[in-house]
Amino acid sequence: MTVRALRQVESGFLADMLYEAIFIPEGHGPLPKAVIQDPSLSRYIENWGKDKLDIAWVAEADHQLVGAVWGRLFNQEHKGFGYVDDRTPELSMAVVAEYRNQGIGTRLMKSIASEYLKLGVEYLSLSVDKANPAVNLYQRLGYTVAGETATSLTMRKRLK
């Protein structure tokens, strides 16, 4: 398995991973794929690469892309679910179901954190459903709770 920067020609893969990143609680059926066209979700991938802080890493196994982590800087006026402030990029991550629990998420998260650190970014943030097992991964990687709703956590990590 290889973890590497997303190539511009692969930016369409982020749409697949955005859909995979939507947490569906056990016992609930899948949402229609068109859900990622909602502005609250599409903002995570639309016009990808327009900003120097639009950064994405992918995992490749068996000659196919199997996971991605990507970050984008939002602002107060147009914020994501894990928005903390105008200086903190927000991450999204997903791994294809059959490749989960193999350390891919850990490698992706460490790779993107390293890249943002090189750019002088001080913090990263993300939003995660409280019932999502990925909460444990984020805590293990040093993310702490910065905000909370009834169903989700906003988590933040200091890089430097």
From TrEMBL:
InterPro entries: Acyl_CoA_acyltransferase, GNAT_dom, N-term/lysine_N-AcTrnsfr. Coiled coil: none annotated. The keyword ATP-binding does not apply. Keywords: Acyltransferase, Transferase. Residues 1-160 form the N-acetyltransferase domain. PROSITE patterns: GNAT. Pfam families: Acetyltransf_1 (PF00583). GO terms for molecular function: acyltransferase activity, transferring groups other than amino-acyl groups. It comes from the Bacteria. This is N-acetyltransferase domain-containing protein. It comes from Phaeodactylibacter xiamenensis.
